[in-house]
Amino acid sequence: MTSNKVASGTRTQGILVVISGPSGVGKGTVCSALRKSAPELIYSVSATTRMPRTGEMEGVNYFFKSKEEFKQLIENEEMLEWAEYVGNYYGTPRKFVEDTLATGKDVILEIEVQGALKVKQKFPEGVFIFLMPPSLSELQNRLVTRGTDSAELIASRLSVARDEIALLEHYNYAVVNDQVENACSKIMAIITAEHCRRERLFPNISEWIDEVK
Ligand SMILES: Nc1nc2c(ncn2[C@@H]2O[C@H](COP(=O)(O)OP(=O)(O)O)[C@@H](O)[C@H]2O)c(=O)[nH]1
Ligand SMILES: Nc1ncnc2c1ncn2[C@@H]1O[C@H](COP(=O)(O)OP(=O)(O)O)[C@@H](O)[C@H]1O
Question: 178 C-alpha vs ligand 2 centroid, how far in Å?
Fold first, then answer.
C-alpha cells in the first residue's frame, strides 16, 4: 500500500472507501478478508438496532443500540449517515470516520445502498465501490446458504436487491464478487490507483518536473 505521508512531510487526508451492494453479495466476507490482508485500512464499526447474532461482539461487529438510543444519536448529529433496512436502523458514527481520515488513514465503510448514497452527498471525493453478485440466482443461493434469514426475509432482501442494483450508476466502480480473493485484489487495486490518481506518490510532481527541465 501507498503511504499517505507526502514527500514534503505534510500529512494528507485519507481516502474514504465505501463498499456497498445487496445483502448476501458477500460484503462482510470480503471485508473480513481485507481486514486480514490489508490491516492498514481502518474499518468503521456501525451502530444498529438489530439483535446481535451468535458470536457477534459489541464494538467489533456493531455497536448494538435500542431504537431510543439510536434516535438520540441521530438527534445529536453523531451519525454520518443512517438508514432503515429490513425493519432495523443502521448508521455510521461520524466522529470516528472524520478523525481517522484526518490522521491520513483510509477508512472502509461496509454499508447498504441508501446509506452509501447519503455518504456520497457528504463526501463526493470518496471512492464508491458496488459489490455485484455473479447473478441473482447466486445471490439467492448465498442468502440461503448463510442460513441467518427466514424464507420471508430472504424474499424481502432479494426484492430490495433488484432496486439496489438499479442504483449502480451512482458508484465509481463495480466489482463482481465471484471469488473472494479476486474481489479483494480488485478492491486493493482500486485503492492503490486512487492514491496514485490523487498524486499521493508524487504530490509535488510538477515542481519536480520543473526542476529536471
Ligand atoms: N446505511 C448503513 N448500512 C449499514 C451500516 N452497517 C451495516 N449496514 C448494512 O446493513 C445491511 C444489513 O446488515 P446485517 O444485518 O449485518 O445483515 P447482512 O449484512 O445481510 O448480514 C447490510 O447491507 C450492511 O452492509 C451502516 O452503518 N449504515
Ligand atoms: N465469493 C463468494 N463465493 C461464494 N460464497 C460467498 C462469496 N462471498 C460470500 N459468500 C457467502 O455468501 C453468504 C453471504 O455473505 P455475507 O458476507 O454475509 O454477505 P453480506 O455481508 O453482503 O450480506 C455467506 O454465506 C458467505 O460465506
Answer: 10
